Amino acid sequence: MKFRKIALIAAGCAVVAGGTLAIAATPSDVISARQANFKVMGKAMKGSFDEIKQPAASLEVLKTNANAIAGAAVKVAAGFPQGTGPEAGVKTTALPAIWEKPQEFHADADKLVKAAQAYQLAAASGNLDAAKGALMQVGGTCKGCHEDFRSRDN
Amino acid sequence: MPRAREAGAKLWDWPVRLIHWSFVALMPMLWWTAQHDNISLHKRLGLVMLGLVVARLMWGVVGSEPARFARFVKGPRGLMAYLRGREKAAAGHNPLGALSVLALLGLLLAEVVLGLVTQDVDGIESGPLNYLVSFDVAEVARHLHELVFNLLLGLIALHLCAILYYRLFKRDNLLTPMVFGRKALDEGMAAPAMAPAWRALACAVVAAALAWWLGAGAPH
Ligand code: HEM
């Protein structure tokens, strides 16, 4: 009996602790985390573009960048829970349209994930021109979403 | 106003006026193209701006007298002497206006140089020399490119206020000479010497070549 009680209390504590942890992820934490994730992609895009400007572009470098983009791309859609828009009072360029048109937003995020995976495959295939083409496709999905869901001014 | 057009001595030659009014036309176009995400047009216009700024700086060394920095830029002592009324200015920019010219051209130069290395937020659209700097340096450049633009807006506003002040309170029309090139000079002012056209052409060729080379990513 006693053991059960202790177990119950412990479980209760765990739930409370877990709850507090979830609450501890404040809107500002969520926003910084998603911005850091976007920055990873921004850097990898620049890394890719810098590389293809080289006289002898290295597919290895493109592959590393493609992996970074694909790894971050899958996290994009989950970075925008309710309450993390401009109303959070934290510096963000996310537009309210994200929560007004969630289907379109998620479709854009899906396009990014697919384009990033295609870029990964193309870079791994060893065909430089295919990798370049796939990189441009990725860039198009970034721009497409930014035009509708991110403001220019910050 | 045929009088304003024909009377007076030649003050601002055509290179100065052409460059000046190109600045006026390009500023809103550069703002508009950046604001509407037409960065590829923005970059092309920005390179034209770069060429014009470089040409103007060269013209300030080898050009017609009123365009030359050595003629109108005075040290602090010369400026104070002018402000206290102890020294008269030659035809063209006075020593105080010279500061405005330097600040405007200096900021324009800073703005085009920053533009060369800056990048859009997503790291996709970027200046032709962006590949030579890191992501973080380019981010700093982006913020400075925006800051210097706002400083330029402030100085342009000041510039317009000064022109209006001269017009209203000093009865000195500065606009017409910048359009038509001629100005009635004060008693005793010498008519400035004009540089030959081939020099302007040489400056234009050098400036255009530099802009083209930078626009192509400074190949070597
Ligand atoms: C005097 C000349 C120039 C002016 C007045 C100017 C003005 C501007 C302005 C107002 C922006 C938007 C800043 C923002 O709100 O984010 C911008 C962005 C940009 N400019 Fe320029 N610019 C000039 C020259 C150049 C040049 C020479 C280049 C490169 C060839 C360039 C490349 C860029 C790029 C890549 C962006 C996008 C970065 C961003 O998103 O902020 N600019 N420019």
Write structural notes for this entry.
Chain A is mostly helical and 154 residues long. Chain A has one domain (26-149): Cytochrome c/b562 (Four Helix Bundle (Hemerythrin (Met), subunit A), Up-down Bundle). In chain A, 76% of the residues lie in helices and 0% in strands. Chain A has helices at 2-24, 27-52, 59-76, 97-100, 102-125, 128-149. In chain A, helix 2 runs antiparallel to helix 3. The longest helix of chain A has 26 residues, at 27-52. Chain A is elongated. Mean pLDDT of chain A is 87; it is low at 15-23. Chain B has 220 residues and is mainly α. Chain B has a single domain, classed as Fumarate Reductase Cytochrome B subunit (Up-down Bundle), CATH 1.20.950. Chain B has nine helices and two strands. In chain B, strands 1-2 form a two-stranded antiparallel sheet. The N and C termini of chain B lie far apart (52 Å). The interface between A and B is medium-sized, with 19 and 13 residues. Protoporphyrin IX containing FE (HEM) binds next to helix 2, helix 3, helix 6 and helix 7 of chain B. The site of protoporphyrin IX containing FE has 27 residues of chain B, from helix 2, helix 3, helix 6 and helix 7.
- By CATH reckoning, the class of chain B would read Mainly Alpha
* Bound molecule kinds, no repeats: protoporphyrin IX containing FE
CATH class of chain A: Mainly Alpha
Radius of gyration from the alpha-carbon trace of chain B, in angstroms: 19 Å
Overall shape of chain B: globular
Number of domains of chain B: 1
Task: Provide the CATH topology of chain A.
Answer: Four Helix Bundle (Hemerythrin (Met), subunit A)
Oligomer: heterodimer
What separation lies between the terminal Cα atoms of chain A? 59 Å
What can be said about the biggest beta sheet of chain A?
A: none
Strand-residue fraction of chain A? under 5%
Largest Cβ-defined interface: A-B, 19 and 13 residues
CATH architectural category of chain B: Up-down Bundle
Number of strands of chain B: 2
Individual helix count of chain B: 9
Helix-strand category of chain B: mainly alpha
Order of helices and strands of chain A: HHHHHH
Record field, number of beta strands of chain A: 0
Mean pLDDT of chain A: 87
CATH superfamily of chain A: Cytochrome c/b562
Low-confidence stretches of chain A: 15-23
